[in-house]
Amino acid sequence: MNWILVIEIVYILILVIVCFRIVFDTRSATKTLAYLLFAVFVPIAGMIFYFMFGTNFRNKKIYSKKLIENEETASQLRAQIHNYSKQIFIENETVFQGNKKLAVMLTRDIQSPLTAENSVSILKNGEEKFPEVLRAIQNAKHHVHIEYYIFEDDEIGKEIEKLLIKKVQEGVVVRFIYDDFGSRSIRKKMVKRLKTAGVQIFPFLKISFIALANQINYRNHRKIIIVDGQTAFVGGINVSDKYINKKEDQLYWRDTHLRIDGPGVFYLQYLFLTDWNFCSKEKIQPGTLFFPDEIDSTDDNKIVQIVASGPDSKTSSVLYSIVQTINLAKREILITTPYFIPGETLMDALIIASLSGVNVKLLVPGISDSRFVNAAARSYYNELLNAGVEIYLYKKGFIHAKTIVADDSIAMIGTANMDLRSFDLNFEVNAIVYDADTAKELKNIFYSDLNDAEKIDSDVWKARPKWMQLLERIAKLVSPML
């Protein structure tokens, strides 16, 4: 009996220590409460779950994002970014109109410069993306940088692999970062083939049994390709055959990507190099090979700004940029997202916008690849519907695009979902294009997708079976830990 008492006392002491750590280490009050309840009411397993999935790496600084070690040089660069962005404001004042606060916020928060004289192309699905990617890589002269959450060892994956090996043989340097969890299908065979052929390839946060508890929850969800520091691709489309929709009997995947040609590539290059130095343990420094002084001229003058965040960020920059975009909208907000677990900040922004007369439309999956996440998302719909937000369920297949259009003036395309994982746990990146033509094009795509969607009727939705609503509310309770 004495041993049982000792074990109970030790367990209670450990539980108290873990609870204190949860309180001090977790930024979100909602997540703090969820982890506390789980740790207290699910003995042992609750604490193990927290250490596996709840450790706050933002406080622990996974790695330094500094690409320039010399602080004086870095300070000079920050000043140059500020002056460069200020000049673009002056020269393109009419382009920004009511959106200047968004651009200023990102310039100050993460030193993401405004860049002009860009050409951009919106790419729908893998059918449009992959031919563009293959052509860009084929034309590479110096380097190809690739960073992906999911890269599959399938038909399109092998086609890109074959081309990368060909470019290495031509003397082009290929650097490849793959997420060790999302791209686990290539770890055994494709990675070895690429290494043997001369491709420099490293996993992001390599998963091993020892490191499983503190790394599996923090994944690199970015999808970036950079060619010669002049052309880049970013968006929601991973490298996988399912995005090409070749087979009629497979689930249709609807997604959106963006090609950028011009100075807008530079911040994506910066992100890649910081991630590369972390993964490879190298200390590559910026230079004209990566950030060329002269960029091939384009016929367009699209203004592009990149926003990125992750557990290494001081702030939730991706979340801030989305909320600020919603707050600044005066007429219309069009949002497409596959995973919608917004949290209080984003929910309040959407509700306030709708109640203020802004036309808010939300396009989400009717068919999802995760029933549990979909159930958690649906638990938020009632409150949005009551505020006048229009919600559409995509029926043609699974919609995986992550896009926002605001007032025919801002187009946002990237990797970040509208969920707590993307805002706090994953390494994400979005591209913002301040351009009416691009915004209108993305708006037309949104309304075209609505032809394959069903609008939720508020009265019908509220009349759903109580057991279904109960399951969704239970899923919502767990959603802060998803």
CATH topology of the largest domain: Endonuclease, Chain A
Structural Rg: 23 Å
Mean pLDDT: 88
Helical fraction equals: 40-55%
Uncertain parts: none
* Count of discrete domains: 3
By CATH reckoning, the class of the largest domain would read: Alpha Beta
E-strand count? 19
What CATH architecture of the largest domain would you give? 2-Layer Sandwich
SSE class: alpha/beta
Quaternary structure state of the chains depicted: single chain
Main sheet specs: 15 strands, mixed
The CATH homology group name of the largest domain: Endonuclease Chain A
- The helix tally amounts to 20
Q: What gross morphology would you assign?
A: globular
Strand content: 15-25%
Distance between the termini: 40 Å
The side-by-side strand order for the widest beta sheet comes to 4-3-2-5-6-8-1-9-18-16-15-10-12-13-19
Question: What can be said about this structure in brief?
Answer:
This protein has helices at 2-25, 29-41, 45-53, 57-60, 71-91, 93-96, 100-110, 125-138, 155-169, 190-197, 212-215, 265-280, 317-328, 343-355, 371-378, 381-386, 420-425, 436-450, 458-462, 466-478, and strands at residues 115-124, 143-148, 173-179, 200-204, 223-227, 231-235, 253-254, 256-261, 302-309, 332-336, 340-341, 359-365, 390-394, 398-399, 403-406, 410-414, 418-419, 428-434, 453-455. It is an alpha/beta fold. It has three domains: 2-56; 120-300, Endonuclease Chain A (Endonuclease, Chain A); 317-481, Endonuclease Chain A (Endonuclease, Chain A, 2-Layer Sandwich).
